[in-house]
């Protein structure tokens, strides 16, 4: 579904991504892990062009995303994204957060969008919060709304950029549970995370990035049990 | 922002606009009470020149004066009803030229330039030049040695004063924009005297027992004549009537009524502050609220819309737009507002030939000026919105326009509301500057009442209170909006 070829990204003189190539298949759940500063967030943000790659190609369903900057909106509406800091629209109710993009971008009728939104809120366990403003929600609730907001656009892929890193520990589980059920429903997902347990349990593949290079690409059982490289080994020793 | 807030805001604007509209219909021209005749003559005048023509501020908007009485008399004799249109003095000749008025009486002196565009009747009044002073020792021009005298800038009196200075040693001449300013300077003991035309001086002499006057020998006389449309058939009729009025003493009778000194109430002790003298004129000042409100609302809207566009230019990726918006801001913030106003008001006719109305010139100046400040406020507001809001919108495939309108600007607006309110309050107060181009706003009306009653403290304090109340109302409105917008925090 997504193909990445020789992806480079430079900020000023700092080369953050040094030529990454991989692909993500339909229905696959990929966990992207690595030390901080390894370029995993930048890698994820390149997929929907929130960061413009310096070099290399990204293909979404055989369409080259990097070549057609003008059509990027068409691609983005099919790629949902969840941020570390939620980025809900604070001046809108939960309901409006969910219906805004479907109504504005996909020209879905308000009524249909609201019906869809209620369905999604039920799915993330927040059916009673549709009239609340984001400011009144807990971190975990906010992130679940953010996931529902992304899903409201009926995306074909979901990108998660450290979705639980900004949460208090007791709220991590409720978000991971939602993600787990989403993975089980067959959604294609790319997740930048520090939750090794989650990666082990839910992911189909683990991408280990270090210093802008894709160091290992393996199934979780294999990666966590017998990492092939020294770098992965020392990283796992620190986090596990 | 919520829909209900929008509705509330638009309702408020609607209210103001309809009130303003109603008042606009009231103003403009004034018909004489009785419709005695079948035909109507429209007279153009500039009602700021007592006692020739002026608005009696104690009695509302009615235009009265020497010219008005003469005009009424002539119109009546010729079998017309009289309608008076008040306008800027500079607009009178063009109004005749474009046939918007039938004739003009405004203490107007025939000169070669005017004669190219309009016809004049014979003169109906000859003015004399007086020295007005509060110093009993000054009785002749020779007594002015070593004294300071005032004149109106660019007037015939200015030339007359120069002639005095040629004859008498060490006469110092000071210039002011308006005749009332001259009188005020005499009262404040800054001037020893002023050269003023008799018809105008008489008003001041009547109302102020400290003032006296004597005629300047061999002074140039300026005659007032009726101006009519070029080739108008009425000119002969007017000449005939003026001749008749001169013969039968009717003209002298009217002149006596307006120009003769009235018996002065002597030894009347005035208290330092006395609001009772201006009480009848307070409604006149209050009417300025609508002018000021209309002015402020239109200027704010213009400034806000333009400021928003400029702020978007400032954050744009296109260098030319950024550069243009920055240059715009730098110019409008770097020069005095009153200079901008005078350039737009006075230079527009010079450069383009378009005689811009004072109100339009004022709204343009204030709108353009305010846009510079508003654009900076909004730019800061947009930059203050979390970058994540932009990313979240982009990730959802939302277009730039929708994102700005519905996601970024509403949040920016909430953050900058106090700063915006501040700008609107400043604009409301600064609007008093438009008085200099003759717009009858609160400030101008207070000045007119001051000139009328020779009391300055009371009308100015009245205007001050009105401005203060308006600013307080804006402040309260701002707080209410802020509270509404902070729902959901």
Automatic annotation (TrEMBL), chain A:
Keyword Thylakoid: no
One Pfam match: ABC_tran
Signal peptide: none
Database matches in InterPro entries: AAA+_ATPase, ABC_ATPase_HisP-typ, ABC_transporter-like_ATP-bd, ABC_transporter-like_CS, MetN_ABC_transporter-like, P-loop_NTPase
PANTHER family associated with the record: AMINO ACID IMPORT ATP-BINDING PROTEIN, ARGININE TRANSPORT ATP-BINDING PROTEIN ARTM
Domain ABC transporter: 2-236
GO molecular function, one term: ATP binding
Name of protein: Amino acid ABC transporter ATP-binding protein
Entries under CDD domains matching the protein: ABC_HisP_GlnQ
Keywords: ATP-binding, Nucleotide-binding, Transport
From TrEMBL, chain B:
Pfam families: BPD_transp_1, SBP_bac_3
Gene3D superfamilies, per database record: MetI-like (1.10.3720.10), Periplasmic binding protein-like II (3.40.190.10)
Compartment(s): Cell membrane
InterPro entries: AA_ABC_transptr_permease_3TM (IPR010065), ArtM/GltK/GlnP/TcyL/YhdX-like (IPR043429), Iontro_rcpt_C (IPR001320), MetI-like (IPR000515), MetI-like_sf (IPR035906), SBP_3_CS (IPR018313), Solute-binding_3/MltF_N (IPR001638)
Annotated keywords: Amino-acid transport, Cell membrane, Membrane, Signal, Transmembrane, Transmembrane helix, Transport
Membrane topology designation: Multi-pass membrane protein
ABC transmembrane type-1 domain ranges (all copies): 289-478
Transmembrane segments: 295-315, 460-481
CDD domains, per the entry: TM_PBP2
Main location: membrane
Domain of life (superkingdom): Bacteria
Family: Belongs to the binding-protein-dependent transport system permease family. HisMQ subfamily. Belongs to the bacterial solute-binding protein 3 family.
Protein name, per record: ABC transporter substrate-binding protein/permease
Classification of source organism: Bacteria, Bacillati, Bacillota, Bacilli, Bacillales
């Amino acid at each position: 579904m997504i193909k990445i070829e020789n992806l480079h990204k430079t900020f000023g003189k700092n080369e953050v991504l040094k030529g990454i190539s991989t692909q993500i298949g339909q229905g696959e759940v990929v966990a992207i892990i690595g030390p901080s500063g390894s370029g995993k967030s930048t890698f994820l943000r390149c997929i929907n062009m929130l960061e413009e790659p310096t070099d290399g190609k990204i293909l979404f369903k055989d369409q080259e995303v990097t070549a057609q900057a003008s059509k990027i909106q068409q691609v983005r509406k099919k790629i949902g994204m969840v941020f570390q800091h939620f980025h809900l629209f604070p001046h809108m109710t939960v309901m409006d957060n969910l219906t805004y993009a479907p109504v504005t971008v996909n020209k879905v009728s308000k009524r249909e969008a609201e019906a869809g939104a209620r369905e999604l809120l039920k799915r993330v366990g927040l059916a009673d919060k549709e009239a609340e403003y984001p400011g009144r929600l807990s971190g975990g609730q906010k992130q679940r709304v953010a996931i529902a907001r992304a899903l409201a656009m009926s995306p074909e892929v979901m990108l998660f950029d450290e979705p639980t890193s900004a949460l208090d520990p007791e709220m991590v589980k409720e978000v991971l549970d939602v993600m787990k059920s989403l993975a089980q429903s067959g959604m294609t997902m790319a997740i930048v995370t520090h939750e090794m347990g989650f990666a082990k349990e839910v992911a189909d593949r683990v991408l280990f990035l270090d210093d802008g290079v894709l160091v290992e690409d393996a199934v979780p059982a294999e990666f966590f049990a017998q990492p092939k490289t020294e770098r992965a080994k020392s990283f796992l020793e620190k986090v596990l | 922002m919520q829909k209900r807030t929008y509705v509330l805001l638009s309702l408020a604007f609607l209210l103001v606009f309809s009130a303003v509209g109603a008042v606009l219909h009231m103003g403009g021209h004034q018909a004489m009470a009785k419709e005695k005749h079948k035909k109507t003559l429209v007279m153009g005048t500039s009602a700021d020149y007592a006692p020739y023509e002026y608005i009696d501020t104690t009695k509302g908007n009615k235009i009265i004066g020497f010219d008005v009485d003469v005009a009424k008399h002539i119109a009546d004799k010729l079998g017309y009803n009289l309608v008076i249109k008040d306008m800027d003095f500079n607009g009178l000749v063009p109004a005749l030229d474009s046939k918007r008025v039938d004739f003009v009486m405004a203490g107007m002196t025939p000169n070669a330039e005017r004669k190219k565009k309009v016809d004049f009747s014979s003169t109906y009044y000859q003015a004399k030049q007086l020295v007005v002073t509060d110093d009993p020792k000054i009785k002749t021009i020779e007594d002015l040695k070593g004294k300071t005298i005032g004149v109106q800038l660019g007037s015939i009196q200015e030339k007359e004063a120069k002639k005095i200075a040629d004859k008498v040693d060490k006469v110092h001449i000071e210039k002011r924009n308006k005749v009332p300013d001259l009188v005020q300077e005499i009262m404040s003991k800054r001037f020893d005297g002023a050269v003023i035309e008799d018809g105008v001086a008489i008003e001041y002499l009547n109302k102020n027992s400290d003032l006296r006057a004597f005629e300047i020998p061999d002074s140039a006389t300026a005659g007032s004549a009726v101006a009519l449309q070029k080739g108008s058939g009425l000119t002969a009729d007017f000449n005939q009537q003026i001749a008749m009025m001169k013969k039968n003493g009717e003209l002298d009778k009217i002149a006596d009524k307006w120009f003769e000194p009235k018996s002065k109430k002597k030894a009347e002790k005035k208290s330092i502050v006395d609001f009772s003298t201006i009480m009848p004129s307070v409604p006149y000042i209050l009417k300025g609220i609508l002018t000021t409100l209309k002015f402020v609302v239109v200027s704010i809207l213009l400034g806000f819309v333009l400021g928003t566009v400029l702020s978007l230019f400032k954050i744009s990726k296109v260098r030319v737009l950024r550069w243009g918006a920055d240059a715009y801001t730098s110019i409008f913030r770097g020069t005095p507002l009153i200079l901008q106003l005078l350039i737009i008001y006075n230079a527009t006719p010079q450069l383009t030939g378009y005689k811009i109305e004072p109100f339009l010139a004022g709204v343009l100046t204030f709108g353009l000026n305010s846009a510079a400040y508003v654009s900076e406020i909004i730019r800061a507001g947009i930059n203050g919105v979390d970058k994540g809001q932009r990313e979240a919108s982009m990730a959802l495939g939302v277009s730039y326009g929708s994102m700005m309108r519905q996601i970024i600007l509403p949040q920016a607006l909430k953050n900058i509301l106090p700063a915006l309110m501040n700008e609107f309050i400043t604009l409301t107060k600064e609007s008093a500057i438009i008085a200099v181009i003759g717009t009858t706003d609160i400030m101008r009306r207070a000045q007119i009442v001051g000139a009328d009653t020779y009391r300055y403290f009371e009308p100015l304090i009245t205007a001050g209170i009105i401005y203060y109340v308006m600013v307080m109302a804006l402040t309260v409105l701002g707080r209410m909006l802020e509270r509404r917008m902070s729902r959901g925090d």
